[in-house]
């Protein structure tokens, strides 16, 4: 089978490409430039006969994926802007590409890829969050939750990029479910909703100066000049998952029959940065002098923070979540390797 994976150069998509190749599929990846295609090709050179790359440089354009989908049997749509810094225009940079990219891939599959039976879409916990509730004491987040922020609020001048990002993900996912309801295509969809995704960074385009948002979050923890306890960041966000589990979830959501028509909250649990730095200092002693100490052993998640229910992903997709310590340590190791320090 040939599987189309959009945004094949990304942090998460690289793991997904790898897992599908390992599982024996042929993968056709979309990227935005020939330079990126070359890097991705080189990084999977051992799978050369199974991997091809096509360039889709603007997925917001109608018909953008018409050629890319031809002859494929399955689609994994991960491409979407994930940035909260350097956003000049919420609509142009975040909302439109996320929403239009999703509608365009589904339209192309509907009109040009009759053999496709399932499309798996990378959504986000951002599509579930009710930002107005903050840490929402007592709430249990699950697939039943939806972020209800209206488009106009996120598109408004001066609206924070984080709000626009989360709204873009929610509206893109809504657009996907609406598409299926309205058009009743031959294929079904499944959506994957991860919170902050950490873990090994293995993408061919990784660049320490321009890391994807969640890897940058970990790199910051191993880049301190001082070890003052004040340097341990305050949590702005509480939930995490390992990139390897997110990738497995995409593969299983594609393969498992009962996953069709379902949303999956892919979440290992809640974290604190104190627990992250404790794990880093203990497990990678050679970087102790660049990781803040804080107050070791005090990193319990406050009881005022919402909790999560991830049972559906375990039951239907068979996910066995990585432990927090392994996720953060493997993430840091990969970044230190990129830096040349390990
Ligand atoms: P990356 O930034 O590493 O990957 C994003 C991918 O999408 C890249 O391949 C990028 O291409 C592509 N992309 C971005 N904007 C566009 C655009 N306008 N048109 C076409 N392609 C585009 O981030 P992640 O791997 O973290 O994100 C992948 C997916 O996972 C996204 O859908 C994101 O919303 C979702 N997600 C990520 C989380 C995380 O913590 N990392 C959490 C929850 C969801 P290029 O390489 O050319 O820039």
UniProtKB/TrEMBL annotation:
Gene3D superfamilies: NAD(P)-binding Rossmann-like Domain
Species whose genome carries this gene: Penicillium vulpinum
GO molecular function, one term: oxidoreductase activity, acting on the CH-OH group of donors, NAD or NADP as acceptor
Keywords, ordered alphabetically: Oxidoreductase
One Pfam family here: Epimerase
Sequence similarity: Belongs to the NAD(P)-dependent epimerase/dehydratase family. Dihydroflavonol-4-reductase subfamily.
Species classification: Eukaryota, Fungi, Dikarya, Ascomycota, Pezizomycotina
NAD-dependent epimerase/dehydratase domain ranges (all copies): 3-260
Listed transmembrane segments: none
PANTHER family noted in UniProt: NAD DEPENDENT EPIMERASE/DEHYDRATASE (PTHR10366), STEROL-4-ALPHA-CARBOXYLATE 3-DEHYDROGENASE, DECARBOXYLATING (PTHR10366:SF564)
Protein name: NAD-dependent epimerase/dehydratase domain-containing protein
Domain of life: Eukaryota
InterPro entries cross-referenced by the UniProt entry: Epimerase_deHydtase, NAD(P)-bd_dom_sf, NAD(P)_dehydrat-like
SUPFAM superfamilies xrefs: NAD(P)-binding Rossmann-fold domains
């Amino acid at each position: 089978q040939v599987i189309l994976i959009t945004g094949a150069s990304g942090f998460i998509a690289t793991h997904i490409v790898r897992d599908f190749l390992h599982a024996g599929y042929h993968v056709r990846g979309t990227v935005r430039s020939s330079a990126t295609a070359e890097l991705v090709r080189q990084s999977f050179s051992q799978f050369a006969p199974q991997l091809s790359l096509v360039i889709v440089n603007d997925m917001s354009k109608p018909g953008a994926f018409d050629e890319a989908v031809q002859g494929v049997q399955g689609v994994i749509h991960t491409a979407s802007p994930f940035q909260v810094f350097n956003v000049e225009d919420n609509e142009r940079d975040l909302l439109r590409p996320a929403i239009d990219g999703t509608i365009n891939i589904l339209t192309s599959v509907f009109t040009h890829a009759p053999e496709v039976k399932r499309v798996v879409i990378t959504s986000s916990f951002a599509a579930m969050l009710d930002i107005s509730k903050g840490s929402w004491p007592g709430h249990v987040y699950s697939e039943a939750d939806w972020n209800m922020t209206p488009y106009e609020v996120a598109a408004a001048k001066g609206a924070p990029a984080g709000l626009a990002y989360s709204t873009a993900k929610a509206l893109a996912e809504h657009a996907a479910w609406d598409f299926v309801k309205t058009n009743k295509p031959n294929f079904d969809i499944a959506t994957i909703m991860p919170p902050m995704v950490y873990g090994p960074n293995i993408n061919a385009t990784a660049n320490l100066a321009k890391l994807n948002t969640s890897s940058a979050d970990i790199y910051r923890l191993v880049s301190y000049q001082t070890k003052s306890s004040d340097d341990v960041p305050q949590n702005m966000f509480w939930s995490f998952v390992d990139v390897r589990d997110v990738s497995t979830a995409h593969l299983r959501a594609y393969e498992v029959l009962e996953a069709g028509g379902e949303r999956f909250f892919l979440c290992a649990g809640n974290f604190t940065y104190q627990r992250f730095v404790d794990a880093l200092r203990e497990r990678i002693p050679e970087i102790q002098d660049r990781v803040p100490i804080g107050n070791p052993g005090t990193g319990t998640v406050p009881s005022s923070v919402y909790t999560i229910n991830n049972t559906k992903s375990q039951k239907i997709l068979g996910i066995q979540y990585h432990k927090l310590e392994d996720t953060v340590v493997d993430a840091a190791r990969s970044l230190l390797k990129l830096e040349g320090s390990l």
